[in-house]
Amino acid sequence: RLNFLDVTLINDNGTLEFNVFHKPTFLGRYLSFLSLHPLSQKRGILISVVDKTILLSHPKYHEDNLNFIVNTFLENDYPMKLFSLVYFRHNKFSIKIFA
User: In terms of C-beta density within 10 A (0-12 exposed, 13-18 middle, 19 or more buried), how is residue 54 classed?
Assistant: First the structure.
């Protein structure tokens, strides 16, 4: 295992796998949904975190990582509906690219 920037590199029997890495000082704090910032900024933060997780990690880690994201953003007062919309948008976009 090697942690570098936002990624953990894992050597699994000669195969390189990637997973999202958080520093030990990571507190799970993002912009609170209750703040007075525009909805577009709040949505953009969630989109960037979901995109980073999906694009930088091996698919076998996606479920755990997405559950972590959901719990983290729920603690920051984000509604589950917003996460569902962002996740659906990402899957719809991915299918168009890779189809």
Answer: middle
